[in-house]
Structure formats: structure tokens, C-alpha cells
Amino acid sequence: MFTVKNKLRQQYKAKRKALNPLQIEELSLTIANNCLTLPIWKKSNYHLFLSIQNQYEIDTSFLLNILQGKDKNVIVAKSNFKTLEMEHFLLTDNTPIKINTYGIPEPQSGISIPPSSIDVVFIPLLAYDSFGNRVGYGKGFYDRFLEKCPKDCIKIGLSFFPPEKTTITTNENDIPLDFCVTPEKNYSFNKK
């Protein structure tokens, strides 16, 4: 199981690295616009990851602009690599953001928000399958965080690519996505 996930991590990191900055920008804008068609906009508290540029992640600044334009509360995380837990802060004009040693832009301080009050989470990922199982960077930050969110919290992956054709093996700690938004289409994994 572990080796399959590692292989997917390497494969998708290489696929992302093959995109040039203009492609990343255009695809990220399309993904942000595709998010507008999701049934999520009546909620209040949205957790958004800030992009790691050196990992060629989706540029979430477009999505951030949409959320702020709709007067939504945007929550961002600070990762603790000793405990593998995240702290969550309300993003305001005064929130000091600093890039950590892993290249992750993070809030340094601010208004703390408990996971129990988060309605929607946008989740970084490397790969995912047609059942909403995902492969992240392998530290489990998001699975631990999502465990503390409300059961009806909407979990949305963002990806430049379509789902993997083969099913990704999961363990009991893995929490699947409800949606994944790509430049081509939105995938829904609602099991209800």
C-alpha cells in the first residue's frame, strides 16, 4: 500500500512540475471559477490552503478572491511538524503571513478558529480516485484535522488532473473527499 502511494506522489509531483507558470495560473483560475458551481456557497467558514509555490500547487489566490468577494470567513492553517497537527486562524488584513522552511505560507498569529466551526475545507492533494480517496504529502495533517471538523463539513480537493483509474488503497484514518474540482469538471463523491 505504502509503495503505491509513494509512486503516485512521485508521478503527480512530476506531472505538476511539467506545467509552466502560465499554465498553472490559467488552470488555477479555471478551477476557482468551477468552484462557483458547487453547492457550498450558503456556508460561512471556509478553510483554504495557501499554495506552496515550489511544489507547483494550484494557486489558491483566485479562490481566496472569490471567498473574500462573497464576504466569507477564510481560515488558514499553521502546521506543527513536531506534533503533525495544525492550528487554524481567521485570515484578516492584519494576519501576518510568513513562508516556513517547507515553503508553506502560514499565519504567524491571529484569531484562533476551532475545527468544529469550519463548514467547508479545500484540501491540497497529489492524486485522488473516482471514490474520493486521496493521496497527500504523507504526513496526515489533513486527516487529523478533518477528524475534528463537523461530520457534515464539505471536503473539496483541488487538482489539475482527472482521477486515478485504479482505486487508491486507504486505511481507517483516511477521510475521503466530497468533491474534487479540476479545470475540466467537478467530480462528486457523495455517498449519501
From TrEMBL:
<protein>
    <recommendedName>
        <fullName>5-formyltetrahydrofolate cyclo-ligase</fullName>
        <ecNumber>6.3.3.2</ecNumber>
    </recommendedName>
</protein>
<dbReference type="InterPro" id="IPR002698">
    <property type="entry name" value="FTHF_cligase"/>
</dbReference>
<keyword id="KW-0067">ATP-binding</keyword>
<keyword id="KW-0479">Metal-binding</keyword>
<dbReference type="GO" id="GO:0030272">
    <property type="term" value="F:5-formyltetrahydrofolate cyclo-ligase activity"/>
</dbReference>
<dbReference type="InterPro" id="IPR037171">
    <property type="entry name" value="NagB/RpiA_transferase-like"/>
</dbReference>
<dbReference type="GO" id="GO:0009396">
    <property type="term" value="P:folic acid-containing compound biosynthetic process"/>
</dbReference>
<keyword id="KW-0436">Ligase</keyword>
<keyword id="KW-0547">Nucleotide-binding</keyword>
<keyword id="KW-0460">Magnesium</keyword>
<comment type="similarity">
    <text>Belongs to the 5-formyltetrahydrofolate cyclo-ligase family.</text>
</comment>
<dbReference type="GO" id="GO:0046872">
    <property type="term" value="F:metal ion binding"/>
</dbReference>
<dbReference type="Pfam" id="PF01812">
    <property type="entry name" value="5-FTHF_cyc-lig"/>
</dbReference>
<dbReference type="GO" id="GO:0005524">
    <property type="term" value="F:ATP binding"/>
</dbReference>
<feature type="binding site">
    <location>
        <begin position="134"/>
        <end position="142"/>
    </location>
    <ligand>
        <name>ATP</name>
    </ligand>
</feature>
<feature type="binding site">
    <location>
        <begin position="5"/>
        <end position="9"/>
    </location>
    <ligand>
        <name>ATP</name>
    </ligand>
</feature>
<dbReference type="InterPro" id="IPR024185">
    <property type="entry name" value="FTHF_cligase-like_sf"/>
</dbReference>
<feature type="binding site">
    <location>
        <position position="57"/>
    </location>
    <ligand>
        <name>substrate</name>
    </ligand>
</feature>
<dbReference type="GO" id="GO:0035999">
    <property type="term" value="P:tetrahydrofolate interconversion"/>
</dbReference>
<feature type="binding site">
    <location>
        <position position="52"/>
    </location>
    <ligand>
        <name>substrate</name>
    </ligand>
</feature>
